[in-house]
């Protein structure tokens, strides 16, 4: 029986690297995308059709969510540097792996900085994992 080479990827096998260093186990990554502005253009003498031209490209913010852990403040410390006026741009990757842990897809983001850090909400009546999130602004996304 032949094996299928184009099976869909599972969405729960991924890791996050920034500047080549794995920065933690995340439960969720959202915001991998870009949008190109559409500019309407009317040509002289062409009264029935409006041309659509590509304009500027914008990139969605990337949001990483993970369970809060004791002792790993790497992303929070970077966010605090930005708050204090020291903006260090870093590039990184969201790496999708197969069930065996082999890399199958990589999203590279360019010139990122943490624009928002949200500690977990705590509730004495809940039994869920305390989840924190960090939001990155960035200047580009490539699939590699």
TrEMBL record:
Matching InterPro entries: CHP02241, Phage_T4_Gp19
Record-linked Pfam families: Phage_T4_gp19 (PF06841)
Signal peptide start and end residues: none
The name this protein goes by in its record: Phage tail protein
């Amino acid at each position: 029986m032949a094996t299928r080479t184009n099976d869909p990827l599972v969405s729960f096998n991924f890791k996050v690297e920034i500047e080549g260093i794995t920065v933690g186990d995340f439960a969720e990554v959202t915001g991998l995308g870009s949008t190109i502005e559409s500019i309407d253009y009317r040509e002289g003498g062409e009264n029935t059709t409006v041309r659509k031209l590509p304009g500027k490209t914008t990139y969605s913010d990337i949001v990483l969510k993970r369970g809060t852990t004791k002792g790993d403040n790497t992303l929070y410390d970077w966010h605090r540097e930005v708050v204090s006026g020291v903006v260090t741009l870093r590039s990184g990757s969201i790496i999708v792996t197969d069930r065996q842990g082999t890399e199958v897809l990589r999203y590279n983001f360019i010139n990122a900085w943490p624009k928002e850090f949200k500690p977990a909400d705590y509730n004495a009546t809940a039994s869920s994992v305390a989840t924190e999130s960090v939001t990155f602004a960035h200047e580009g996304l490539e699939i590699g």
